[in-house]
Structure formats: structure tokens, C-alpha cells
Amino acid sequence: MESLAFKDDVSASSIAAANSLQLIAFSIGEQTYGVEITTVREIRAWNGATPLPNTREFVRGVINLRGTIVPIFDLRARFGEGVTSPTKNHVVVVMSVGDKWVGILVDAVSDILTVSKDDIHNVPEGNSIDTELLNGIVTHDSRMVGLIDLHAVVSGAKMDS
Amino acid sequence: MSDLDDFKATYFDECSELLLELEEQFHAIEDGDRSSNRLNAVFRAIHSIKGGGGAFGFSDLVAFAHAYETLLDHVRDGRLELSEHVATLCIRANDIVADFVAAAKDGVALAPGYGADEKAQFDALTSGNDPDMVGEPMDEFDIDFVPVMVTLNGADETPEPIALAPAAADSFEAAPMAAANRWIIRFTPHSELYARANDPLLLFRELATLGQLEIRTLIDEIPPLADFEPFGVYCSWELTLTSATAGEAQIAEVFEFVDGNCDLEIVSVAAAAEPTDIAETALPSFADLAALELSEEALDAEVEQTGAAAPGLLLSFADIAEAMKPALKAALPVMPTPLKQVVAVPDDLDGDSDRRNGSEDRRNGVQSIRVDLDKIDRVVNMVGELVITQSMLTQQMDETLRTRYQELVRGIEVLAQTTRGLQDSVMAIRAQPVKTVFSRMPRLVRELASKTGKKIRLETIGENTEIDKTIIEQLSDPLTHMIRNSADHGIELPASRSAAGKGETGVIRLSAEQAGGNILIAVEDDGGGINRERVLQVARDRGVVGPDQMLTDEQIDQLIFAPGFSTAAEVSDISGRGVGMDVVLSNIKKIGGSVHVKSWTGKGTRMTLRLPLTLAVLDVMLVKVAGSPYVIPLSSIVETIQCGRANFSRMPTGGQVLQVRGEYVQVVDLAKRFEMSTNTERENRFVVLCEAEGGVKVALIVDDIIGQQQVVIKSLEENFQSIEGIAGGTILGDGNVALIVDVQGLKTATATHKSAA
Predict the structure, then answer these.
(1) Domains of chain A
(2) pLDDT at B405 over 90
(3) How many domains is chain B partitioned into structurally?
(4) Are the beta carbons of A100 and B718 separated by less than 8 Å?
(5) Cα dist from B76 to A31, B67, B126, whole Å
(6) Which of A25, B441, B621, B650 could form a Cys-Cys staple with A111, CB 3.0–4.6 A?
């Protein structure tokens, strides 16, 4: 049984280490959302994008990120709240999703948050868009922060899907 | 990957090079070059393949290669004439060797007895001449050892033939025997000594600085090959140092670093007690002995001179070599390349010209390295970026900038030049001579000639012309089809050639040349030319051409590229299925090239492929649609027309067609097609007439034409997904992304496309 006890020790300590989560928080209108900091590659100011034909309205187009073509998703439009009219003050957060890099267009990046995994709540059933696009909800400074499910955000970009 | 896998991979790499060399050499032999160089090169190639194959235990390959080698050996010795029959057999044998290598590489088993017929033929041919050769044990590698130079004085001593007496006399003057002490050092290294990267030679060199050194290598321990352990230690040395100054401590100091890794015994011998006649016979120093040009005669003379006085004291490197031979044979196939090249020298010593050849080969070996194509592509990509950044910088320069910051401007101009040079150099790395494809064609022509009963000679010109590797890989199929076409349809049978007043032997000329930014590859024959009546008749029968449509000669010639088109009365092995020329066209279009055919009745046909130098850069026309930049590959553009001058007609369903030069062409308004709104007035827009696959035209309507430029193709799928009607993206000089219009995709997709809700 000695080996079993040893195993328990290890898992307990690894849980403690992995229990907190750092998020990059950004805002769309009044609402705050977050993504895990390790997925974020770069934050850059909006500088226009080349529109892609035959894609849904939340695909803003593609930009040149040091020689690589990266698609930009309009998160506001993805939530069905209308297309953003971006200015120079809008921000593109470039993230890696799987083996791809994508950018999401948001109003502003606000903060880096450290939250405990235990504090993540499930998204209440209801609006299908919310449950589809959010992984969970955490509370920070008595504000609600929605955790973005990046895979869900970038899927269904084509016209026919 | 294990070491063995590494070795194997290297072996197979080398095999493919050697097989290519085989083809090349046989092509030259076929052309009448019967010099021994050629045969020796073939022999070397087969020998190397066999040697490596033996090391990895590919016994079928080795057995076959051995029989083949025996045949070649007979031919080389002149015991067997290189007749047509033998040459054909050899070419067949090359194929079989290639098959064996491929089978070994992929780890698949060939049919049992594969190549046995040919092997039997070899044996029959060779046994007729020399029965002894048959049944010669096949693991007998005929490698001779060649002395390798070592000197005790370090690096840059020029080797010179042994000059026995004077050298010895000099040294005796410098260090008179009477005053000298003699030391006998018995040195037996352990394997740890070698494992720690010590080299006895360096120790001996060090010792030699102390006085005059004689070295005797004890090789009695070297076991027979079967028991030979590659990392075993079998040599020990007995060194005799004659020095006026050195003491035991100094000698021991030399061996300080290997202390504990060897057995060392240092014995002082009174100089007086030693018989002086050994020295008086002018025993050569080690340095002399080790010199490279150790001729047979000199060696014999030495042995005669010294052997009597001091039997067994002298052991030349040749002797060691003799003793080491079994070991070397075992080690040879897995040795790293440079070493192998040194050991391979004996093959080159057959004659003077061969030696030149060999040294050339070696030099080539040293000057080239194998690099993963991925690594090169990464460099190509980055250079592409650099080019774009540089052109962006250049675009930013206006007149005020030019006058204010002259130094900066000059710097940017130099940067532009360097960048262009860099781009050329990088592209040159990817470039390969077309020889790699051309060399496969002689055999094809040979086969075709024997199948059709025609006499055909292949001439190749400009085979050193270089093109991008990716393009080369795409060339093999089209060229094969073109040559088949020439052999089957172009060249006439010998009888009809004679009747037409031409030589019986038809000529197919394969040529490559660079013309500006393109490579032109032409397949030319002196046959009957395209039978236009026949082609037109078949085209009419098949409905490719309307009954009342009149075609120019040129247009008729182009018909041979239509899919499924064949004039052959019946399907033969070679051609007639109607696939072929359309494969040529589509393959060449795929890599951004074009095909042109020109025919002279009764005189011949010439088909020319125009290919881009590289695939990494695409020539495009930059256009604007609804304010966004798009590029259209220049290779697919036929012409551009202003909308105001174009002749549009309305179709019953509301669609539009464009009438141009008697043809009705489908119209695609890119703005509508891409669901974007444009404010540009209809009259001011442009029609870009494009040709999609199979010669079908489509008219694209764009807002504006900006100009032509070269772009680097970027993938959209890398971070996103493919989009209908878009072939990819590219980055313009201003850093913005432009999308590449997929003409073919737009054309085919239009029919099914419905406007999105």
C-alpha cells in the first residue's frame, strides 16, 4: 500500500499547482470575457483586415502576422450582437487554437486575472449561443467573466456551415 | 532513429544517386563511348551498392549485384565484348538492381527468383569465358589497401619518396650514437584509451620529438575476420627511442595522459651493449617509413637491406595493412563517407584517367552536403518575407525622403540588391539540373523503339539547365507522355522514312534552356508531323469540334491536348488510350507553365513547355474588387477588356455572357460572386478574360486593374480553412493581405453556387 500512498501525494501536489488559472480579460461593450493566458500569442491594435468572401459575417478577414496569414474573428458578431465598427483603439488578441493561430477582435484588453479553478461555474442552461461559446463563468471583483471556448468561436466560419 | 537506421537512410540516398549515375553512364556507353572510364564508373556504382547491401544483409540484392559485377568485370577486362545483347542485359540489370534496392528500402519482399533469369544469363555469359569465375565466393570483396600518410612531425609535411641513406646519415650526424641512450618502450593500449579519444600516433609524434624513434607494431593478436571485434584492441607497439637527452621521466611524461589505460614498460638499454650494425645499415626513421609514396620496390629494397640485420624489427604500414585487411573489409560498408572514399581509391588506380575521375568524384563528395528540404523551404520562405519587406521599404520612399536622407536611401538601395542576390541564391539551392529527369528518357526511347520496330535516336541538349526541384518532380510524367507521343505518332517506320527520303533512324531531340524568367523544354522529332486532316476528322467525330467550325492549323494542332483525344486506330501498349497529352497540359498548367505545339507536315513536330523558374514566386495581376486587393495568376490570363467596350449579352435566366472573338464566354462578376458591394460604375470596370483548365474561358469582372507583380504564395488553410473561389493568399508590398483568385474553382463552382440568404 506504500506505493498507493506515494501516488496520492503526487497527485495532491500537482492539483495544488494546477489549481489556479491566469486569464487575459478583455471587454466587449460592458461585458468582460477571458481566455487562458497561455493561449495568447500577441495583442495588437486593429489595423484593418482583408475581407474573405463567402464567409460568415463574424469573420472579419485576414491579416499579415509577420508573413503568416491569420484570420480575424469579430467576437461581438460571433455573439450575435452585431458587427463591430472597429477603430484604431480596438484590439486584436492573437491566440493559438490547436495548431492554428487566430485573432479575435475585441473592444479592449483590460486585465490579467488569476482565478482558482474551483471558482469556475458552469454556464447556466438557457441561451444556446452562451452555452456553445463559453466554457464557464468566474467571478472577479463581483463582475462576471465569461471563459471563451476558442474552438467553438472559430468553428462554423464558412457560409454553408 | 538508431544509428543503423541513419546508416541505412544514407545508404539508400547514395543508392539512388548511384542508380542515376548508372543510367547516365549507360546512356553514354550507348552513344558509343566505350572508354574504360564509363565501365569503371558503372562497376564502381554496382560495387558500392553491393558493398552497402552486404552490410545490411540484403542478400538477394548482393547476390544479384555480384553476378552483375562479374559480368561487368569480364567486359572491363575485354574477356567479353560489350555487344548490343550485353548492353541490353546490363540495362535490364540496372532496373533489377533498382528494384532490389527499392524493395530493401520499403522492406517488401520481391517475388522469389526475381532476376534469376538475368542472373543465369550473366553466369552463362561469364562462364563461357572463364569457368573459374563462376562460383567465386561472393563475399570476396576485392579491396586493396593503400598506404595512408602519417607523419611524426604533425600536419604539413610533404610526403616524399623514401630517400633512405641521406636522411639517416643526417640524423646520425646530429645525434651521434655513442653519446645516445636507448630506451625500449613496450606500449599496449587498452580499449579505454581509444574510448577516451586518445591516438597512439600523437603519442609517438610526441616521443619522436625527444630523439630518434623506431616503431614496431605487434599485430600477432589480430584475430581472423570471424572473431574480429570492430572496437577490439589488437595492436601493441614496441618503440625504440634513441636520444642523448631524454630520461625515463620525460618518456613517462609523454604517456601521462594515458596512464592507467595502457600497459607501459620502459626499459633502458645501454647504448654500447647494442650491436651498432643495425644503425649502420641506415634504418629508416618512422617518418620516412610512413611517407605515402611507399613504392613496392623501395619496400622490397628496404626489407632486403634491413631485414637481415634486424629481422622482424621493421614493420611497414603495408604489412599492417595486409594484416588489417580482413578487418577493414568488415568495417568498410558502415564507415562514414570520407573514410569510404579514401578506401575506395584502389578502384580509381586502374589508369591515369581513372584516377582523375576518381579525384573529381571525391571532390564533389566533399563539396556537397545533404540538407533536409524542409530546412531549405524555411529559408526560402523567410527570404520571401525579406523581399516583401524590402519592397515595402522602397515603396515608402518619396521625394522629400530621398533628398533629406540620402544615406538611408542609399542603404535601402544596397539592401534591395543584396536581397535580390539572396533570393537568387536561395532559389539556386532548390534548383536541380534537368538531367535528373532527362536521364530516365534514353531507356524509355530504347523500349519504345523496340516495341514499335522503329529506329529512334535520342539527343539531349542543355541537360545542365537548372529548375526548381518541385518542378523537376512534376516533369517526369509530361516528358514521358511527350516522348511516347513522338515515338508512336511522330517518328515513322524505317521503310516509310526511307521512302520519304529521310534516314532510317528517327531523331527525338530533348532540349532545355533558360529564357528570361522561364525554362523552355522542347521535345522535337523529325517524323511526319501532325496529321491535321486526321486530327480534325477525329475531333469532328467525337464532337470536340462542331461540324461547321473552321479551325486554323494551329488550332488543330492544339486539339491533341483535348482530354480523351487519340487518333491511334487501336490502343497499343504505348499510346492510344487518349490519356496522355491532356495529362501533359494539366500537369504543366498546375505548375504554372504552358505548352505549345508546332508541326511541319512531313518534317516533324516540336512541343515546347514553358515553365517558371520557381514555384515559390507567382507572377500575378493585381486587381481591386470592392476596395479589396485580389491577384489573378498571370499564366491564366488571356486578355483584359474595359467593360465599356466589351460585348455582353443577356441570357434568359438573367446571367450574362461575353462575346469575344466569336466565342461566348461565361461571365463572373467578382464583386457579386464574393458578395461585396462596389461603387465603381459599370463602364469603368474591367473584364479579365481567363483560361481555366481544358482551354475553357471565363470572364471575370473586377473594379480596377492595378498592375503586375510577383508574389509569394501563402496558405489560407494554415490558420484557417480553404475558401471556395480563393486559391490562397499573399502579402503585398504594403503589408496587406491579397487573396489569390482561383480561376478554375470559380468556373466550376458557379453553376452550383446559390446566393446566400
Answers:
(1) 23-154 (2.40.50.180)
(2) no
(3) 5
(4) yes
(5) 87, 14, 12
(6) A25
